[in-house]
Design brief:
66% of the residues lie in helices and 5% in strands. By secondary structure, the chain is mainly alpha-helical. The chain has one domain. Helix 3 crosses helix 4 and helix 8 packs antiparallel against helix 9. The longest helix is centred in the N-terminal third of the chain and has 33 residues. The chain is globular.
Length: 265
Amino acid sequence: MFPVIEIGVVRIPVYTALFMLGFAIMIIMARRIAERYNYPKADILYVSLYAGIGIFLGAKLMYFISKLPAIVAKFDVYIEYWKNEPMGAFNYSFGGLVFYGGLIGALLGAYIYCRQYKMPFHTLTDIFAPLIPFVHGIGRIGCFMAGCCYGKEYHGFGCVQFPANKLIPVLDDVPRIPVQLIEAGLNFAVAGVLFVLMKKVKLKSGQLMGIYILYYTVARFLLEMLRGDAARGNVGGVSTSQIISVILLPIGIALVSGKFSKNLA
């Protein structure tokens, strides 16, 4: 595990560094893919800024939503926490990031840009569909390096024993499933499949994004069963991400079917 890069007195979280690297690579690749779709390269840069803001806001908001069941259950304690330790309460409420929130926020930010400047949103989803899992895979490697989003206890082949981590005291208690690396591998694989489909198969607008959403909702629902961290929130034993997966699944099916193709512009 290698959570922080230290350069003199500067400490850079590895997760942040890897995500920013992935985001930069995504913009470069998107600008090249845009040529295939006759999409202006300048707009790729600007829409990425809108999407980047959406990622940050959406991921933070979804993290807070994932905390709501615990907050509601002990609301009086939560209010007192804000009164006595506002920074601690703020970090508890907004100190993490949730991928689904970032994904929804990015798509919303991109849609706002397209509406504002009258650009085709459906073409944009085709351009970015294979790049989202690519960047996500890089981000999951960052999760592994940081020790967050860790897996359940596991003593078999491929288990990982994390070193002590002051921020996550229970992390080194037992060997764990390297669920972050499993998800990273699955994301890189589907990114490759989507790149091949983009080049070899003629699809309707939005179908490429639909295939990605269909894949990820199913994969994430199953991967959640391997997770060992409880910070992501749950309702009745079902994690927040599993609930969102179930909600998004019909959207993926509809996009793959081509029903939304004429309504995405």
